Amino acid sequence: STAPHLSKSKGDLTIEADPEKITNDQIGLVAMLTRDTAIRDTLRIVLDYVAAYQCKVAAAGNGHDLHVSADVYDDSLIHARLLRIDVNDSVAKKIYHYRINTNGGSINISSYGGNGLDGSSGLDGTSGSPGSDGTVSVDVETTTAPDGSTQTTTNTTMGPGGDGGPGGNGDDGEDGDNGGNGGNIYIRYTPAVAPYLSLIKALSIPGAGGSGGRGGQGGSGGAGGAGDPPGNNGLDGMSGRNGFDGAAGQKGKIIFTQNAD
Asked: Which secondary structure element, helix H or strand E, spans residue 67, and what is its range?
């Protein structure tokens, strides 16, 4: 038997997940007062293994190959025929054990490939530099009238403005990574399991491809400088292309094999 679990809150109620660590198909629920732990009561619960069990094995890249063994036996304590399912994940070096009542129970075994990473977005282009203003010229002209008086005339002119600089081009977005392939699932079963194969579902689920990154926006052209005539605005930079989405992974193989008698 496994060590007891001490529940410290209403939502912290745990039942041992490994049936091989449960003795005689029973679990014990012990309730005790917080202020006086000597006051307690025990409830024995008999498991019937009627449930829709889920064994989901997920990977960051390609899905893990799973090797499943299936047998059936009669449990005299609860008077039921049970499937004994062992799922061996050799990559993670883990084995998952299940007991399934053939009258109402089932199991779904899945090996998931990881989703591809999204590509990063390209950097936006820098803005073009503004054009310089035209040079200001001041012309002062003094004239003398016949009566000897003078008149001063000031003329201010402005040269042509400089053109604005072009905006920088945006960088291309990175391509998304491909999704991982779903893992292969190999199920070996004894002849006695054959009538109950419909209770064992196996799915190899590939990962989705990552999204391509957004292309960077082209920088705006610099403003033309003031002048006569004013300078032309610079051309906007070209936007980068969006990255391509990664391809989804491929499903793995699902193979059922009956053991020889």
From this structure: strand 66-75
